[in-house]
Write a structure and sequence with these properties.
mainly alpha
Length: 104
């Protein structure tokens, strides 16, 4: 595992019984929920004159918070299966470079 996933796992352990620790299926569902919240912020950013956009003072701060929530849930999901997300992402990038003519 990487440092971020270790940190998420340790945080989850410290909060057990005080904050939800979803199983793998619920981790995926919560990830979708958090992605929808990212989409909501992006809609507000793309239309700053909309009344709902004006309700948020700093959309970039809100976007950062929501992306953090997405990352938390992805790490929680990956931790259920002992998958290192950095390694998985690096492998994916290398595969794309090889498939589309880039260099590794």
């Amino acid at each position: 595992m990487n440092d971020m996933q270790d940190f998420v796992g340790e945080t989850r352990r410290k909060l057990r019984g005080k904050y939800p620790h979803p199983d793998a299926k619920d981790s995926l569902l919560y990830t979708f929920t958090e992605l929808a919240e990212v989409a909501d912020v992006l809609l507000r950013i793309s239309n700053p004159n909309h009344k709902r956009a004006r309700q948020m003072v700093d959309l970039k701060v809100r976007l950062r918070e929501e992306l953090g929530d997405v990352q938390l849930m992805l790490c929680t999901l990956a931790n259920h299966f002992d998958i290192d997300l950095i390694e998985a992402c690096a492998d994916c990038c290398c595969d794309k470079l090889a498939k589309y003519g880039g260099t590794k």
